[in-house]
Amino acid sequence: MIGDLREMWRLLALSPARVTVAIAWGVAALGSGLGLAALAAWLIARAWQMPPVLDLSVAVVAVRALGISRGLCRYLERLATHDVALRAMTTARTSVYRTLAQSDVRWWRDRNSSSVAPTGVADHAGPVGSTGRALRRGDVLVRTGADIDDLGAVVVRVLVPVAVAVVLSLAAVGLIAIISPLAAVILAVALAVSGILAPWLSAAAAREAERAVRADRAEFAAGALTVLDHAAELRVAGRLDAALALADRASQRAVTAEDSAASRSAWAAAATPLSIGVSAFGALLVGIAAYGSTGGLPGGMTPMALTILVLVPLSAFEAVGMLPAAATTLTTSRAALHRLRGISAGTRGTAGADSADSERREWAAVEPAPADLDSAGVRERARSVVPGGPVTSPWATARRTPMPEGSRVVVVGPSGAGKTTLLMAWAGLFDTPRDGVTFFAEDAHLFGTSILENLRVARGDLTLDEAESALRTVGLGPWLDTLPDGLHTSLTAGAAAVSGGQRRRILLARALVAPAHTLLLDEPTEHLAAAEGDQLLLDLLDADSGLVAADRTVVVVTHQLPRGHRAGTVVTVDATGTCHIEHHHATTSSAT
């Protein structure tokens, strides 16, 4: 546990000075409450003796000051702890994002897909997770979202509360020991039960819930994203019901685990009230036995001391009352740390649940992979793209396929042959992005903003005239004329606000205004009418058409190549993954 705490401190990059300030404000807040209880108890008993009012004036002012300082210090403690926590979470999230960005995600997936997906369908992108399989998008969402949130909660709910509880417990026991050592012993034992036994029970319940619940919740999130993203494909394959059933069973397992862990949580919740009752009752018995100048123990006890002896323990438990929740938070944070450690190391994490292992293997068979990129068959066939010895990674294979020279290049082949993979490799998206080369995906996003701002995604300084010219060039002039706000028309629902053909033309216009010298276009004529698509493709592949400047290189991926095209180079990817490169207007052709 100590090692985990040190690693949390390092990953969160906590500032000792800021944490100390947060603890100091927490001690001041609860210390004001403890002092207020003791002083109020003394004031009540002393006022019963009806002394001159001036004898009580200092105590009255002090009670008011402590009441004000308690709320003020609590507010400042909240500010300090949340400032530390939010800074730490930002640092941790940045570190995890940087690790994911710099990691060879595709290599991770290839290395593990064969052992995890016996059907030949790999999981979605991501490094290896806690279950021994490549992480899907739902898993990555949990890691970068909820897990880092759980890690950041250590500051607010663990470090500061524990430190404050230790300081206040020692102060309360010391104060009671001045009045009665026996009562101080009773208080110390009660505080130990509330501050040690109750957190232990809470941690045990949290561990039980964590092992079953979190893994199943992550499984449910991954399954839900799979269904949302690929419902149509799953329905066509006849696996939609199976996918929904798997997600439902994961959710049911989580609910069952939560119920089973609730009993220990109940005992942990009961430990603190029972400790408070025992402590108060014990202090009252000790006080009664020692009270009075003529009866009880030798020396007796004043009314003020008796009142303090009984009331102060009630306030002392305010600090330790937060420790069960701190233990629960620490347990979930340690599990989150182990999962994040699995991402950082690129190896299997340490958290997970055995109860869902079989269904995780089923998910590998149920979850489909996007066309061209994630098909296991494509990855196998891609090994034959480039000769020259064994290739350990299909992505390395794509990187070794040089981009043919020529101002107009077209890549054709059947679906799943690896055309998009080749295009992304030429763009350098699997290692280092290449300067002056921009890849425009078939499913590029349209944002819920104006048409103009959607074009400015490619070039921020795009003018109104340039934007309108680009739209009219790709055939959107008549549609643009029907819009009352023109370029400032807001696409409220993003891609859902336009038809499939309009979306493709807007994305093509975005590509045309991009400053890159080389444009890599994936299926730019998809969803267009056959005649319109063929003409647009002919114009893209004709350097003299004026659609794209003649000095720019255009590489187009398409399923069907229209007759009469003027592409300088044709790359054909066949069903075996072999690339045949043909240079037009040349006497020879080459096959790679």
Low-confidence stretches: 105-133, 346-397, 586-592
Number of strands: 7
Portion in helices: 55-70%
What is the N-to-C succession of helices and strands? HHHHHHHHHHHHEHEHHHHEHEEEE
Mean pLDDT: 76
Sheet with the most strands: spatial strand order: 2-3-4-1-5-6-7
Reported for the largest beta sheet, the result is: 7 strands, mixed
Tally of individual helices:
18
Proportion of beta-strand residues: 5-15%
The rough form would be described as elongated
- How far the N terminus sits from the C terminus, by CA atoms, comes to 56 Å
What does this structure look like?
By secondary structure, this protein is mainly α. It contains 18 helices and seven strands. A seven-stranded mixed sheet has the order 2-3-4-1-5-6-7, with helices on both faces. Helix 2 runs antiparallel to helix 8 (303-320).
In short:
The chain has 592 residues and is mainly alpha-helical. It has helices at residues 2-12, 16-48, 54-102, 105-116, 137-179, 181-237, 240-290, 303-320, 323-345, 357-366, 376-381, 394-399, 419-427, 451-455, 464-473, 477-481, 500-513, 530-540; strands spanning 408-412, 437-440, 518-522, 553-558, 569-573, 579-583, 590-591.
Fold blueprint:
Blueprint: H1 2-12, H2 16-48, H3 54-102, H4 105-116, H5 137-179, H6 181-237, H7 240-290, H8 303-320, H9 323-345, H10 357-366, H11 376-381, H12 394-399, E1 408-412, H13 419-427, E2 437-440, H14 451-455, H15 464-473, H16 477-481, H17 500-513, E3 518-522, H18 530-540, E4 553-558, E5 569-573, E6 579-583, E7 590-591
